[in-house]
Amino acid sequence: MSGWPAEGLPGTGLCGVSPSVPRLAGALGAAAATVFVAACSGIAGSGGNAGSGDGATVTVRVRGLTIVAEVADSDTERRRGLMYRTDLPPGRGMIFEFAGETTSGFYMFRTLLPLSIMFVRDGRVVGVREMTPCPSDDPSSCPVYYPDGAYTHAVEAPARTFAEVVAGDPVAIGSD
């Protein structure tokens, strides 16, 4: 996920909701802000295909698919997310891990590639969304992609990766 929390975007005021732009009309919690930042996150000046820092990966398995996902478990990694990436091969992705449940959305500000996102809680799919890059220079004008319920993990992969995945499908997340 690439972006800034819905509230407090530089020069935008209240944008909407809780990693990817306007959604909540109220104050965001720390977890919500972190997630929102992660969804379409990125830090200006980060490299086009820069990794997530320490290079840690996990394997995510769902419906016969295997995704090797970079781990974004710090605020900085969640903020950076997949912003500015110009390539994300099939079978690769990024997993956003949260200490507790959240319902925050993701946006695609400064994210160059269309992505599929899968929200996970308790080893089951909560929901899946297809996200398209937001060409705007104004993050508050980017759509926010919300889950169908609370989640603890979000997995981003190339567009249409999770096209056959449905809510309730079992998900296995493990170390490489």
CATH T-level topology: Jelly Rolls
CATH architecture verdict? Sandwich
Total DSSP helices: 2
Beta strands, count: 11
Short characterization:
This protein has 176 residues and is mostly beta strands. The chain has helices spanning 30-39, 75-80; strands spanning 7-9, 13-14, 57-62, 65-72, 92-102, 106-107, 115-121, 124-131, 144-145, 151-158, 172-175.
Short key terms for the protein model shown above:
176 residues; Jelly Rolls; two-stranded antiparallel ribbon; 11 strands; 35% strand; disordered N terminus
Give an overview in words:
The chain has helices at residues 30-39, 75-80, and strands at residues 7-9, 13-14, 57-62, 65-72, 92-102, 106-107, 115-121, 124-131, 144-145, 151-158, 172-175. The chain is globular. A hairpin with a 2-residue loop joins strand 7 (115-121) and strand 8. The longest helix has 10 residues, at 30-39. It has a single domain, classed as Jelly Rolls (Sandwich), CATH 2.60.120.1140. The two termini are 22 Å apart. A 7-stranded mixed beta sheet has the order 8-7-10-5-4-3-11. It has a two-stranded antiparallel ribbon with strand order 1-2. Strands 6-9 form a two-stranded antiparallel ribbon. The chain is mainly beta.
